[in-house]
Amino acid sequence: MGIGVVIRNKVAVVGYAQSTIERRAGRALGAITVDTARAAVADAGLTLDQIDGFVASSLLPSAGGHQPIDGVSTVSSVWLARSLNLAPRYVAGFDGIGQVSGSVGMAVNALVSGAADYVVVHRALHNPAGSYHGNAMRVAGGSQQWTAPQGFFGPLAMIALPYNEYLQRFGVSRESMAAVVTEARKNGSRLPWSYWRDRPLTVDEYLAEPTLVDPVCRLDCDIPVDGVAAFVLTSAERAVDLPNRPVYVAGFASSAGSRRRLPLHWPLDDILDGGADTVRRLWRETGLTIDEVDLPQVYDGFSPLVWFWLEVLGLCPVGEAHRFVESGGIDSDRDGALPALSGGGALGNGRMHGIPQMLECYLQLSGRAGERQRNVSVGLACQSAPHFGGVVAYSSEPV
Question: Domain Thiolase C-terminal: where (predicted)?
């Protein structure tokens, strides 16, 4: 019996809260997280004393030598539970890439096993002062001794490698990426909590940006922000007695990347082949196919990841994502198009990791998207790179 059979339709998301996303907030990250968690619990129709599980990932995504301080630059599940004056039965933190999808997986397992009855999953992102990805190292040790002295350092160099490879292999120009970034910004500009609210982007504005690490420009990267989101999960049986329409977790899959590579070495074939393996595991565990997915929320912390996810999911052939997007394939305003960035993603909200993808799935599938509401029933929330991240499948009804 596969794990998907055990967890499928057993757990539902029943409430949420999202803070305003700001470049730098005027309040401490911990204080924002406490308020957001309280709001999520209230939204679910619960009281704090009913919450007996907390899951988070407290990774600080900065390569500039910034120190993680719990409650200040990061917020762990332990810190949050203590700050709410609770003594839950289950407290855990996800240690890996794909922070939101990994945390959801841990929460699902806790609920299915009976380790907890009501679990808060949160992600708190902080934008430290100073240069976000500046290299403060004076000595390079471990695997970085083979890369940092030569200038191969940080996420920009990491994503520039497969992005360049894609452009060269498939005869694409970086101008094609304008269609991805402007789509994300268009959708993010419509959201009241987004950093980019009321600030869509034109193609000319995108193309005017100089490159940082060729071919990556500033607008190909999600902007570092302060922001928090929290979700409440419980069993499907308990969910039916709560006020919001439940959104079911159909299954999830994750990948830890290739063991043969240095941490920042992401060749294109590794991404596409590893991503295909991740997606095959998702279909095996959920019993779904891509044809049943009408809300694929692809990850876009860096714009090339949109192309990579579209292709490994089978939404377009390998090497064709640039044409698919340029032809309106993910235009959220076009009838028949795939709403792959309808929630704005990271490029349209700010660096919230996989929160925009999960939030859009929850809002749309629970019927709580307001004027943006779509007629959809199965969503995917992707995070990080296809070969080094995760994906969770959600549904409005048991599948």
Answer: 282-382
Q: What is the DSSP letter of 386?
A: T
Alpha carbon distance 382, 364 (integer Å)? 16
Extract the tokens encoding 50. 């009913």
The tens digit of pLDDT for each residue in 11-55 reads 999 999 999 999 999 999 999 999 999 999 999 999 999 999 999
> What is residue 125's three-state secondary structure?
strand
Q: With contact defined as beta carbons under 8 Å apart, do 301 and 100 qualify?
A: no
Domain spanning 3-129+223-395 has what CATH number?
3.40.47.10
What is the DSSP annotation of 63-114?
-S-PPP-BTTTB--HHHHHHHTT---SEEEE--SS-HHHHHHHHHHHHHHHT
DSSP 228-261: EEEEEEEEHHHHTTSSSPPEEEEEEEE----TTS
Q: Model pTM?
A: 0.95
* 295-297 and 378-385 strand pairing: parallel
